Amino acid sequence: MTFIHYGGKFYRLVHPRPTVIIGTLCEDGRVNLMPASWNMPISEEPETIGVSVYKETFTYRCLKFHPYATINVPGPELLDLTYSLGSVSGKDVDKVKKFNVELVESEKINVPGMAKAIAIYETRIYNQIDVGECTLFVFEVLKSKVRDGITNQSGLDLRKTNLLLHGSGKIFHYVDKSMLSARELE
Q1: What is the pTM of this model?
Q2: In the chain, where are the structural domains located?
Q3: Please, which residues have CB within 8 angstroms of residue 68's CB and are 6 or more apart in sequence?
Q4: I want to staple 165 with a disulfide (CB 3.0 to 4.6 A). Which of 16, 118, 119, 124 is the partner?
């Protein structure tokens, strides 16, 4: 097997990535929404999710102001909205008003979630790690909720919904609905 030098952006070799939309409360009282595909579960004890946020974003400023956030999981029906939310800055535009985003009240925190998300995590900042031009925010999950009827024992039932996986720019992918089961190696 031969490997060659990859001349593109290094991170594209680990894309497409699941996309979430971070909901934050900002200094002016507005809710800001930002898609983020650089995210991952971190730990089960405590339940945490990590999201890398560029330090120059409005979302970064909002997270520094208010340590609570919703992490919203968009389904395929939110494809255009997800792309649009990432195409403008909340510093310049009230994204909730501009894109007519319906919000739903949270139970544990004062930051609302997105009513049309397939899942919502209510979180607080647990830790922050500065890495280059970004900060890895580690969010402790205070409450997780999912739309009724779209899960099975493995998590999301991909026959009933799907995840948006961000490739690059306007390109998103879906998860294939088929399931593979690994066999044990001897």
Answers
A1: 0.94
A2: 10-173
A3: 25, 109, 110, 111, 122, 123, 124, 125
A4: 16
Average pLDDT over all residues of the chain: 95
Q: How far apart are CA 117 and CA 19, in angstroms?
A: 12
Q: What is the per-residue pLDDT across 155-180, written as a single tens digit (0 to 9) for each?
A: 999 889 999 999 988 999 988 877 77
The CATH classification of domain 10-173, taken from the options 2.30.110.10, 3.40.50.2000, 3.40.50.1820, 3.40.50.1950: 2.30.110.10
Distance of CA 155 to the CA centre of its chain: 16
Angle, alpha carbons 173-176-177 (nearest 5°): 135
CA distances in angstroms from 50 to 56, 57, 109, 124, 142, listed in the order given: 18, 17, 18, 11, 14
Successive 10-residue mean pLDDT values, the chain, 186 residues: 92 91 97 97 98 98 98 96 96 97 98 98 98 98 97 90 92 82 84
Radius of gyration of the chain (CA): 17
* CA–CA dist 128, 42 (Å, integer): 13
